[in-house]
Amino acid sequence: MRIKYLIFLGLMQCCFFVNAQNKTLDPVEYVNPLMGTQSLHNLSNGNTYPAICRPWGMNFWTPQTGKMGDGWAYTYTAEKIRGFKQTHQPSPWMNDYGQFSIMPVTGKTVFNEDERASWFSHKAETSKPYYYSVYLADYDVTTEITATERAAHFQITFPDNEKSSIIIDAFDKGSYIKIIPSENKIIGYTTRNSGGVPENFKNYFVLQFDKPFTANSTWTDKTLTKDKLESTGLHVGAVVEFKTQKGEKVNIKVASSFISAEQAELNLKNELGQATFDETVEQSKNEWNKVLGRITIEDDNAEKVRTFYSCLYRTVCFPQKQYEIDKNGDIVHYSPYNGKILPGYMFAGTGFWDTFRALYPLLNLVYPSINKEMQEGLINDYKEGGFLPEWSSPGFRNVMVGNNSASVVSDAYMKGLRGYDINTLYEALVHGANNEGPMDAVGRKGVSYYNTLGYVPYDVKINENAARTLEYAYDDFAIWKLAKALDRPKNEIKLFEKRMLNYKNVFSPAIGLMSGRNKDGSFPAKFNPLKWGDAFTEGNSWHYSWSVFHDIQGLINLMGGEKAFTAKLDAVFTTPPVFDDTYYGSVIHEIREMQIMNMGQYAHGNQPIQHMIYLYNYAGEPWKTQYWSREVMNRLYKPTPDGYCGDEDNGQTSAWYIFSAMGFYPVCPATEEYVLGAPLFKKTTIQFENKKQLIINATDNSETNRYVDKLKWNNSKHEKNYIGHFDLLEGGELNFDMTSSPNLQRGTSSADYPYSYSASK
Fold first, then answer.
1. Residue 566: closest CA among 624, 504, 633, 631
2. pLDDT of amino acid 25
3. Cis peptide bond prior to 343, omega within 30° of 0
4. What DSSP character marks residue 522?
5. Are 465 and 516 in contact (CB under 8 A)?
6. Distance CA 693, CA 563 (A)
7. Which of 14, 80, 307, 723 is most buried by a 10 A CB count?
8. Residues in the chain with pLDDT < 70?
9. What is the pLDDT of residue 761?
C-alpha cells in the first residue's frame, strides 16, 4: 500500500509542472534529502546526510553507511547499510553525540557492525524528510522510518523466518542496555560524544515493540550472552528475536532524552502515544508542508523548484531543539555547559561563523517565532556557560574564529524580535567582546591586541589574525547597533563605533587587499594574497577582503573608488584558481572545491565570500550582481547527491540560495536592509507570521532574461538597490520586469546604494 502511495505522489509531482506557473501545493514532495550526500573527506558536495526528522527536531534519524564514529554517517556511493542511527550531528567535521542505532537482521545472529551490514540500492530506497524506506537485500527486510521531534516510529517488514532479529547498538565509549521482555521493551543509554559535554552526559533511550520477543541476548564488546537481559560496559547492545511470517510488520516506537530514562518514556508517550505508523507519517508530512509552505513557488522549471525546497529543508534542520517537556508541561533542558537539569529553552548544532550570514536572517524574516526561542536559549547558554557559544555541539566547541554571536543577537532584535531578555544578551555580547573565553573559539582570542592596537597582529602566534580582526570589527558594528537601540551610555556606544572601523588597520595599500599586519605596524614584505589559512580562515585574501559588511563604502574608498572596486570584484572571477596551500601542508577540500568550479578565485563552497556578488550594488553596477547570482544558482546548486559545491554548513549555503532565488540577500545582518539581486522564479509568495504576504513577480523570467529592467514595489517605481525588512513585512508586491540585456542606467546613483557606515555619516 505504501509503495503505491509513494508512486502516486511521484506521479502527482510530475503533473504539477504540466502547465507553467503551477503552484507548489505539496512542497515537501520536492525535497531530496540525499542532496549533498555524495561527499568525501577531500571533496565535499554538501557533506549532508538524509535526516528523517521534524523541523528543528531534537533527534534526527539516518541510515548509517559509515563505521561507528565516522563523521561521514551516510555516503551516497556506499554499498551497505550498517544500521539506522539516531543522530545529532551538525557536520562530519564536528561529528556526533548521543547516538545509537537499530538494525533488523534475519537468520544467523550477527551484531558486529561489519558482519550485520546489508547491501542496498538507491533504486529500492525512498528518502523524504518525513519518511524513509529501504530494502535490506541480505535479509529480505524492508525498513521504514518516520519521526517526531524527540521520537521515531519504525515499521519493519520481515520475511517468513524462524529467527528474525532486531539489533540495538548503544555504541562505544560507555553504554548501558536492559531488555524487559514482560513489557516488550528495551531501555538504555549511550554516552558517546565528540566533545562539548560535561562528565555526566548521557542520552537515555527507550524502545517499545508491538510483538513479544521469543529470545533475548545482550552483548558486550564482541561477546554475545544469551538470556542475559542487562549489560553495562564500554560497548554494549541487545538482540531480540521473533518468529515472523512473510510480510509481517514489526513496529518499534523509540524515544530518547538527555534528562533521564523517565523523561525518555514521557517523550515516547507524549509524541507517539497510540498513533499508528501511517498516522505519524501523515502528521510529519503535514508539519513539513506547514513549515516549507511559508514560501510558495510558481514556475515551470521542476529541477530548480526541487533545488529550492531541498535547500529550504536544510535551513530548517539546525540548530536542533535541546529542550524537553516535563511531566508538568514545563520546558526544561539538560545543560551541556554545567550538566544540570534547568528550566527553559536550549538549542545546539550550529556555528555562527557560517550561519550569521544568511541562515539567521532567513529565520528572522520567515520563521521569527522559532528564533525567539533560540534567543531565549542563548540567554541560558550564557547563564550556564559564562559566554555565548560560537559553535555549539552541544556545548562549546573549539573551532572557527570570530565573535559572531553578536550578529545573531543583534540582527534578531533589529529585525523586530521581542519578548525575551535582550539586556542579558547585550551583557553577554559585551562580555564576549572584551574577554578571551575558556577556549580559542569562545570570546575573542587576541582581544588585548585588538582593543589596544586595533587589530590582531600577524607575528604574535595567533592564527588567522586578519580574519579575526575583520570579523571582530563587524561584530563591534552589530554591538554598536544594538547599543544604540537599547539606549546604552554614550561612551559605550562610541567605543564600539570606533572599534567597528578597525577593519581599515589590516588593509594593505601595497596589494590593495586585506593582509596580516605585524605588531610594530608593518605589513609582511612577502605577504601572498593567494595563501590559504595563515592570516585568514579557510580562505585567502581574495575571499576575506570583502568582509566589511557594514561599511562597503569605506572599503571602496580604501580600494581607490568605485571603478577600482568593481574592477577588483571582476578580478575575483577572472584570476585563475591558483593557490598557496603551504600553511595547511596539503590541499584542503575547500581549496579543491574552488579550483574545480571554473569561477576563478570565487570560492562559494565556503562562507567568507558568499556575499561578495551583491557588492556591485554599492558601486553602481547592479547588473553584475544579477548576472553572477544567476550563474551561481545555475552552476553550483542541483537537487542531486552532488548538488552543493562545498559544505552545506547547517543551512547557510542553502539560505544563500533561498534568498538569492527570491531576489535579495542580507549582506549586512543587524541592518534592516536586503540588497537586491534578481529572482529565479516567475512567482514567489512568502506567508509571514503576521498573516501578511509578500508576492514577488517576475513573469518574463527565463534563462536569458536574468537582468532587471524595471522594479515596482506596490505599483511604485523602485530605483533603490535594496529594500527594507519592515517594508516587506507589511506585505505587498515586488514586480520585476526581466530582460535579456542589462539596464546600465538603473541603480547607478549613490542615492540608490545600500547602507554603508561611511556613507551614512
1. 624
2. 77
3. no
4. P
5. yes
6. 39
7. 307
8. 1-24
9. 74
Dihedral angle at the C-alpha atoms of 728, 729, 731, 733, nearest 10 degrees? 20
Angle at 579 between CA 576 and CA 580, to 5 degrees: 155
**How do strand 350-351 and strand 391-392 relate by DSSP bridges?**
antiparallel
Report CA torsion sign: 752, 753, 756, 761: negative
Beta-sheet pairing, 248-257 with 331-334: unpaired
Is the alpha carbon torsion for 379, 385, 388, 392 positive or negative?
negative
Per the CB < 8 A criterion, the answer to whether 171 and 101 are in contact is: yes
- Residue 204: CB atoms within 10 A of its CB come to 22
Buried/exposed code over 465-495 (b: 16+ C-beta within 10 A; e: otherwise):
bbbbbbbbbbbbbbbbbbbeeeebeeebbeb
The C-alpha atoms of residue 746 and residue 748 are separated, in whole angstroms, by: 6
> Regarding beta strands 732-739 and 693-697, do their DSSP bridges make them parallel or antiparallel, or are they unpaired?
parallel
C-beta separation of 94 from 391 below 8 A: yes
Please, which residues have CB within 8 angstroms of residue 641's CB and are 6 or more apart in sequence? 34, 35, 36, 37, 38, 45, 76
Please provide the distance, in angstroms rounded to a whole number, between the alpha carbons at the two ends of the chain.
67
Nearest C-alpha neighbor of 87 from the set 233, 222, 196, 190: 190
* pLDDT tens profile 158-178: 999 999 999 999 999 999 999
From the centroid of its chain, how far is CA 4? 33
Cell of residue 725, nine digits: 525588512
Strands 132-136 vs 141-147: parallel, antiparallel or unpaired: antiparallel
Per-residue DSSP letters for 655-710? HHHHHHHHTEE-SSBTBSEEEE---SSSEEEEE-TTS-EEEEE-TT--SS--EEEE
391 close to 354: Cβ distance less than 8 angstroms: no
Q: Residue 175's pLDDT is what?
A: 98
Give me the pLDDT at residue 188, please.
Answer: 98
3-class DSSP state of 456: coil
Distance CA 680, CA 33 (A): 22
Q: What is residue 23's predicted lDDT score, i.e. its pLDDT? A: 63
d(CA 594, CA 597): 6
Spatial neighbors of 584 by CB under 8 A, at least 6 apart, are: 532, 533, 591
> C-alpha cell of 314?
536544510
The sign of the dihedral angle between the CA atoms of 669, 672, 678, 679 is positive
Count CA atoms within 13 Å of residue 736 on its CB side.
32
Q: At what angle do helices 422-433 and 405-414 cross, to 10 degrees?
A: 150
Cβ contacts of residue 286 below 8 Å, gap of 6+?
A: none
User: CA of 123: how far to CAs of 5, 118, 217, 303, 386, in Å?
Assistant: 16, 15, 34, 20, 50
> Residues near 100 by Cβ (< 8 Å), separated by ≥ 6?
85, 86, 168, 169, 170, 171, 175, 188, 190, 203, 205, 256
Nearest by Cα to 655 from 326, 359, 296? 359
3-state secondary structure at position 121: coil
The CA distance from 750 to 617, in Å, is 10
Alpha-helical regions (H) of 191-339: 261-271, 277-292, 302-315
pTM, two decimal places: 0.96
Helices (runs of H) and strands (runs of E) counted in the chain: 21, 36
How many CB atoms lie under 10 A from the CB of residue 544?
26
d(CA 90, CA 92): 7
Sign, Cα dihedral of 428, 429, 435, 438: positive
Q: Are 35 and 46 in contact (CB under 8 A)?
A: yes
Q: How far does CA 18 lie from the centroid of its chain? A: 33
What residue type is assigned to position 43 of the chain? Answer: L
